[in-house]
Amino acid sequence: MADPDATPSGNDERADAAADDATSGEFARQMAVAAERSGLGALARDEKLSGGDLLKAIGGVRGVLEALLPGLVFLVTYAVLTSLLGWATQDALVPALGASVGLAVVFTIARLATKGQPTQAIAGLIGVLASAALSLWSGDARDNYVLGFFTNAAYAIALLVSLLVRWPAIGVIVGFLMGDGTAWRADRRKMRAAQFLTIVWICFFAARLIVQVPLYFVDNVAALGLTRLLMGVPLYALVLVFTWLVVRAVYPSSARTPE
């Protein structure tokens, strides 16, 4: 006589396996979507890198303007008022911050009005508002840059942790972009490339801190603002290009997932 428990047990095992597969598939899909939205998503599968591809990866013309102009307007306004017009630093702080916040608000409204993707503009607006609030609270212009220190430190630490637990974050992103899932971890060459690229991105965030934090402590607002701009979108674009070159070398054309 057949064991009466055999069939239900087999069904349960198959049901559990199917549930696990569904969960894994959904996780992979979500990771692929998240990876696609990253800057690498616009580059990873391209055979040739054009200026248009790179511009798209860093947010397009509008995204670049949203990232750069509020900070540039703050720096220029503050420098003109304090250096050329002789205003006291605290007197110049409010109009400089007002100009920066006002521009961020305009960008956000423009995104909403044109039914574009408002996420980047809203995130930028929140960052500008938080930084302005901190600077107004302390009465110190250099505090407009403090939140950026914590953001860069958080990214660097998160990437370092991913490296230490042998799940380098850049490898995870690229793996899902390339349709490789987590299989890259079993490939020594891909694993080493993922570790190397994760270290590169750690150095990117750490370099910002190494250069900018000393400028904060010596109270050099002009140099701090300028380096913040130069080590923002321009340096980010260079690191993206370098990452693309390494990914392109590791993943042969035939192995790339078509768009």
UniProtKB/TrEMBL annotation:
Region (Disordered): 1-24
Membrane-crossing residue ranges in chain numbering: 64-87, 93-114, 121-138, 153-176, 196-217, 229-251
One Pfam family from the record: DUF3159
Annotated signal peptide: none
Alphabetical UniProt keywords: Membrane, Transmembrane, Transmembrane helix
Record protein name field: DUF3159 domain-containing protein
Lineage: Bacteria, Bacillati, Actinomycetota, Actinomycetes, Micrococcales
